[in-house]
Sequence to fold (507 residues):
Amino acid sequence: FLTSSASPDSFLQCLSAMLPSELVYQQSSSGFTSVLESSVQNPKFLTNTTVRPLCIVTASSVPHVQAAVRCGRWHGVRLRVRSGGHDYEGLSYRSVRPEVFAVLDLARLRGVRVVPGEASAWADAGATLGELYYAVGTANPGFLFPGGVCATVGVSGFVSGGGIGLTMRKYGVGGDNVLDARIVNADGDVLDRAAMGEDLFWAIRGGGGESFGVVVAWRLKLSRVPPTVTVANNLRTMEQGVADLLAKWETTILAPSLPADLTIRVALQERHALFQTLYLGRCSDLIRTVGGVFPELGMTAADCNEMSWLRAMAFIYFGNTGTPAEGLLNRTNSLGTYFKSKSDYVRRAVGRAGWESLFQQQLSRNGNMLMILEPHGGAVGGGNTNATSPYPHRRGVLFNIQYGSMWWGEANGTAAAAALGWLDGLYAFMGQYATSNPREAFANYRDLDLGQNVVGRDGVSSYSSGRVWAERYFMGNYRRLAAVKAMVDPSDYFRNEQSIPPLPKTL
Ligand code: FDA
Fold:
């Protein structure tokens, strides 16, 4: 079905025969650059040397997606699928290798259907988390979806990569909260959960959507939320004993006395730590609970902001109470800051001395580095939840770390080299505290430093090259993901530099 070499002209002719012309942007089209850049988050991937797509298909219906897949397979042109565009390595719209490909952009396919009182919602693949939160919070205010902080992240990338956030301690990761999905497979057919089978349905809930097909819609599980939740921000500096606070914070995470309704994530930068709290209840209960498990934080009623869950998501994202919930619908990107991210998991407490030296030797020396610590435990830490999602970082995990290093000016050059050097130093320093064998990493914080697939002479990504990076994202679940890939896409049509290769028949 897939021709061995790409025929770009035939592919474009196929698209023009099967799709309205206004949906397809070729490189020569006047709108090509603005559509390409519309959801890019990092200007690093918009340089003269970036390998750009042959064209962009802006599908607005499922038949458009099917047509793009069929044309791609008939004429040997691969698709990069883009929903929210937040991929940390830009793999939804650029290729690292010099290959011919097209972008299938789903931003126009983004309806969210919510029925008041029902504990589920359908979200089209191109919806953002902010659009989902707004639809749920306005039409079904007794419910929430356990998503992440950044409102412009796509539902599809979030859920298909696992998806961590401030309510996962209560409800699990994003991938645990999917009830059904519709996927266009490598033959261009649309399959729902019953038709795709439980193995593929498991794989797309945390194993990365890009390896298996194009998800066009998700049926998401919604969970009950009280009418009032509480958010609080507590900023503490090195001078205020932040190392002591972090040493206490990390010992509370797996404590049986810590309710899953309470999440305190921490952002570290320069000489301070911001403790960001979301509590699924009223301020008075929060103060009592924090006072019992973590009195050293010194949280008082004056720190509390009581509001609806929807308003809380806006507060946490925008950092103020003034921006209305409608702000969550804004998809506009700003391309001012260059950045590179990496991730870790911690299963053994870092300890006071470790936190102290992290600030002394690393963070306080460069204000452009950031660490975000997402506590696990609760629902995400218990039970055999690998049954629902390939997200493997569960039992015994204290917290996930996201590292970020920022710079300004140009993509490459001295500022970039310095920022990347700082980040490498920080990552090396944290090696003594992070997990090892493998050093776990989060699939949604994609990092090409961990490795890239090697494509064999048969045109298929090799399983052994995938092990290098994929066992860090998926641990023991890599093999099962590769078996699913071999079943649904053995010719490896849906692939990028870090997609799941098919499991060889001999293994
Ligand atoms: P994008 O469209 O770039 O797609 C990401 C990957 O998924 C690509 O490989 C793409 O091909 C594939 N894909 C997208 N749509 C698909 C579809 N419909 N079918 C099949 N494959 C598809 N994560 C997290 O868990 N918690 C968080 O709090 C945050 N916060 C955060 C903040 C910021 C500023 C950024 C830049 C990123 C995050 N993330 C995150 C990471 C984020 O979840 C991750 O990058 C997601 O893959 C982004 O999904 P998008 O749809 O936006 O990306």
